[in-house]
Amino acid sequence: MKTSRKGERNIMQSGRQSRMHLLDIASTVLRDEVFPILRDDAVTNTLRQDKLLILLGNKLLKKYRAKYHHKEIRSKLRSLGRLLLAIKEKNPEILNFASIYNCRYYDLTLKTINELGGLNEQTGCYRAPSYPYMIGILLKQVGKILVSECIKDQNKYLKTNVEEFLHLLHEDYGTSVNKTVLENQLEKKRNKGTEIPNLGDIQILKKYLDKNRSKYFNNLKEKFSVSDWKALAMYTLTTLQLFNRRRAGEIQRILIADVEKTHGIRDGTNDDLYNSLTAAGKQTADQYMRCVIRGKLARGVPVLFHKTHWECIKLILKHRSSAGISSENPYVFGVPSTNNKCQFLDACALMRDFSNKCGAENPQSLRGTKLRKHIATQSVILNLNETDVTDLASFMGHAEKIHKDHYRMPLPAREITKISALLELAQGDSVSGKDNEVPQVGSTNATDPETPEINTNNTILGTSTLTPCEKENDENFSNAHKIGKTETRSPIKLRNCKLNNNSLLVENDELVDDPAPLEEPYQWSPSSYHPTSDEETSVNGTPEKNRKNKKSTWNTPERQAARKYLNRFIEKKELPPLSFCNKISKTYIPNRTGKQLKAWINNQIQRASSSNRTPQKRGVKRMTWLTPERAIVKQEFAECYRSGILPSLQRCANVIAKYPVLKNRNPTTLKAKVNNEMQRRKKLSTF
Q: Does any domain span residue 473?
């Protein structure tokens, strides 16, 4: 039944296309693809014969050339058509959309927009606040097109009217309409709230998708079936959306050309990087591949494929022709079409369907945008630093400000526990029985506000925050470097670096060899440093942060240890990551903090740079003017002092040649002497 209805709809569209009467200025795409799908009613008939709206349609098609934008273009045209019909009913003098651009009709236009938006005069609320906001933007766009047409036709009178109407629109519309629209939208958003999916429902959906994807993959591998092929494509598409948290429109329009460029670390081009990884790192690299697809605003956004995802995609592409997909369809998840259009699966509809079938407790929360907000909110729980937040926003295809302002959701736990504690401290109350101690949410240590420490047991999507490679290296480091006693190792600070036994992956992903193996720690004696009585010391003898005001000279063992493990940074004139400095200081220089160690390295780099700097050429050594010289200058340039006019260089040269006592002076120096004396006398005359 569904197929017959679709066939009937295609026949009706073809009939409307054959008997449609559009203006000749309409483009081919507007005539053949946009208008035939519009409902055949009074609004569409008005659009067909309005020159200005046809020009707008042509311009929008030039700006948005992808076929999936046609639906949005139809919506904008129909919104303007409804506005034109409503104004015509109120004032018969309005014949077309260009007639609206007259200052006499501005109030009428504003009143009609408020009626169509459902404005309640008593409450000041719109029933559909998005409509007035969109119409305001479209009126400005159409007005600019009309001004361009007036310039072409040299119609200065109409051009003046349109510009005056646009001036009113620019000055008044924001206050009269948009301010109320914004308040209504914020109120609805506040009352509606946003429910973030919980980890249990995400895991249930993941297991459901993996189970069915594996089932249809095995069936299709044994014997081809169109139903099995389509089912495999649907489950694979939703799995990729759930794993990568991509927008539905981005993931459903993956191109075959983009997938063909999929690559991994072990593809022949990154052998050096692959060989430098540990066994766990190589295992992770073997399981995942990456490609770049078109994102929002034409950005390139990455998509990660597990090897099981990649096998499913290869099988889907293998049986495309058998499933009836046209060779002209460029999409990986394309579907058969009866009207020669390149169609693809709808990721939003599939996510709704599978979330209801998987057995989740709250299936309404399992939606594309809410899943993206979930991963953005997890970054708050994990206390990621600015660099990690920027990397996450870049992967998600967000601008960093949008990522923080719109996708991050407020955490009630942080506000209740942390902010309430700060408010109590502000009024002099103690918190949890301990003065000046603020509970931390998602963090085990808040001593460094610039680089917040996180608990390595925090998980996101059911996995550890550290990769297997990082966990292995972390354990090797902590087990191999003890200072004669067993101590509990505090959570490390996350940076864009990974510490291996023999290498350090620094912030720019450049692999740097460690010149000295860390298996033989430098034997440091804490007795070599004696803090003053004013300094607070911790249990293990390490001075606390208040010792930053008590500077102490670095002794020989400290300098030797710092140069042994950090000399490569001094030679390359690069500062090491703070997390690496913290580890070195804890293990080898316990009486120095990581920040002090990093500052010492910076001082050594600056000292080396200044010592290698070539001395600058100095000018002629200044000589004191002798009494005979000053007397000659006063005598020869007396008239210059009276007139306030400087002598020429030629005259200065003549004076030097005349008096041998001035043989060590040059004309420029002599002229400067006269100028200085003139300035001195001028200052004295003002008192």
A: no
Nearest Cα neighbor of 84 from 122, 127, 44 is: 44
Residues 174 and 228 in one domain: no
Quote the CA–CA distance of 687 and 683 in Å, as a whole number: 7
Q: What is the mean pLDDT of the segment spanning 628-643?
A: 88
Helix (H, G, I), strand (E, B) or coil at 294: strand
pLDDT 10s digits, 387-443: 777 777 778 877 767 766 666 666 566 667 677 778 888 887 665 544 444 555 444
Domain membership of residue 481 (yes or no) is: no
Domains of the chain: total? 5
| Max intra-chain CA distance, the chain | 118
- With 80 as the cut, is the pLDDT of residue 664 above it? yes
Q: Is residue 400 part of a domain?
A: yes
Query: 295 with 398, same domain?
Result: no
Stated as kind and residue range, the H or E segment containing 327 is none
pLDDT of residue 149: 95
pLDDT confidence band for 167 (50 / 70 / 90): very high
CA distances from 539 to 412, 487, 590, 612 (A): 36, 11, 12, 43
Which tokens belong to 562?
Answer: 């710092």
- Distance (Å) of CA 652 to CA 403, 623, 661: 70, 18, 14
| 532-564 confidence digits (pLDDT tens) | 433 344 434 444 444 444 678 888 888 888 888
Residue 574: which domain range? 492-527+552-611
| Nearest CA-CA partner of 441 in 464, 462, 412 | 412
- Tell me: do 271 and 309 sit in the same domain: yes
Q: Which of 366, 398, 425 is the last residue of a domain?
A: 366
Q: In terms of DSSP bridges, do strands 498-499 and 503-505 run parallel, antiparallel, or are they unpaired?
A: antiparallel
182 and 236 housed in the same domain = no
Q: Are 189 and 212 spatial neighbours (Cβ–Cβ below 8 Å)?
A: no
> Is the whole-model pTM more than 0.70?
no
| Amino acid 227: pLDDT | 94
What is d(CA 191, CA 125) in angstroms, rounded to the nearest whole number? 14
Tell me, yes or no, whether 336 lies in a domain.
yes
CB distance 568 to 599 below 8 Å: no
- One-letter amino acid at 494 equals L
Mean pLDDT of the region 368-395:
80
Rounded Cα distance between 563 and 576, Å, is 13
